[in-house]
Please model this.
Amino acid sequence: MPSVADAAPGDMPIDTPPNAPPNAPPNTPLAIICCGGTVPYAVADAAIRRGRRVVMFPLRGWADASAVAAYSHHWIALGQFGRFCRLAHREGCRDIVLVGGLVRPSILQLRLDWGTLMQMPLIIRSFRGGDDHLLTGVARMLERNGFRVIGAHEVAPEITAPVGVLGRVSPGAAVQHDIEHGFGLLAAMSAFDVGQAAVIAGRRVLAIEAAEGTDALLDRIAAMRAAGRITLPAGAGVLVKAPKRRQDRRFDLPSIGPDTIERAARAGLAGIAVIGGATIVAEPQRLVEAADSAGMFVVGCPDAEASA
Amino acid sequence: MPSVADAAPGDMPIDTPPNAPPNAPPNTPLAIICCGGTVPYAVADAAIRRGRRVVMFPLRGWADASAVAAYSHHWIALGQFGRFCRLAHREGCRDIVLVGGLVRPSILQLRLDWGTLMQMPLIIRSFRGGDDHLLTGVARMLERNGFRVIGAHEVAPEITAPVGVLGRVSPGAAVQHDIEHGFGLLAAMSAFDVGQAAVIAGRRVLAIEAAEGTDALLDRIAAMRAAGRITLPAGAGVLVKAPKRRQDRRFDLPSIGPDTIERAARAGLAGIAVIGGATIVAEPQRLVEAADSAGMFVVGCPDAEASA
Model:
């Protein structure tokens, strides 16, 4: 793996020529700003498999140092916007993917550098409102600095769930109504910049995700079952996950992984329904194995928004 | 306090004559089906203050035996529909209020009697879907048996929050947007038979209530703060509560009490916004004292649906 320090300063790659075949990766290296979880490495591996050079920018405090070590990388602290721009330009990066779980930091936790301070009014505006606002604000800042923010699913479509059933278990006819009810609910909420996941059982909405995240949502279902607050038998209920409508899908696509399956199984759910092509699947092979062994379905549903 | 056993079987009171003044209570005793919490007793006391006789029907396992002891009462088990109808008719009751917290039981927990079994198809239909469906189904069953189901707020309007500020603390101009955002979100969700409460801070939706209830919602905010998942300073954020739109307000109006204030204070919220006239306030004096001492606002907002 070439070290970032090996790149000569004058060695600036040019971008993909206009007559390049549509599937050929651009010649510029891909910058991946990595937050938590395993998804950033799946995206990096997919880009590398296509022959593209990748430079990781792991966020200190969020990214996993042992996972990052295998890639060209520069650590950055959240808020070091100037440092990021300098390093990414020096690496010749033009395209940026922002990927992985990011718990919203306190403005006091941010170590702000000079480049960031110059952008403060925009940042402060981004910090009000939902995650969407925050990420849109960050993307706008990056674009002002000559970068192009692209979605992980554009770089590596194979990391998203397909339309159809993953694994051996299919959703029964009885849960179809719950799946539709759930996606309808998420669509109704998304104008409020919230609502990427909910749990529905027997046409009843048991839990809705906001700032706590999907893991906590599933743990809540398990706790409500244990406390007798949910009295449905195990094997009832569906986790539905969807990107917010009109959300900028370049970042913050919903994701599921093997641990989602394990938590959903502990919550006694029958399965998981996501939007095909718009949901990142971390470690798909382990996910399918976990679903099969738990007897749970995982289904990618057609993207109503894409066809609309 | 007269015992229920003292009532002579032939002593059937007649209903309010048509020429009675509009504020006079009907002559028939009021049946109150009491679930958990203190609200049933506030409703009973308000009816008694107006000179109406009250017969409580505490639900075994939900109602508090020591609180019930002060009133005429008959214990019933959930599912003893036939027993309830027999006793309520014998007491001469025509109007019924269903009030208090009720965690949805498992169908196996129900001890079904003959009268209930006869109604099973209706009950089973009611058990699918949200709480609204369940309660609407129960009300329909009661009405088929000659009763009239009325709302606690109709019997005792003084137990609902007024429009305006309760206590000494007023909501600042900065939270107005959060309050509107929250009520807008709840309205958008209510078509899905869910969404009576949410917590909003700085235009961001932090938590949405589904089956877990408001107490767990507030505890979740406190836990997310403790875990650093919410990094807003204490004193930011609003709990909004509203009845579902087009909800049958005869039952299941949202309620707040002193413990809601204590939990909201532990969650670091600035205050609580409810819909005036459509939110039950349990123990209003203790609630106001708790809010004042926590420096929190409690505000009743105008009812958009009532004026629409």
In short: Residues 129 and 193 of chain B are 8 Å apart (CA to CA).
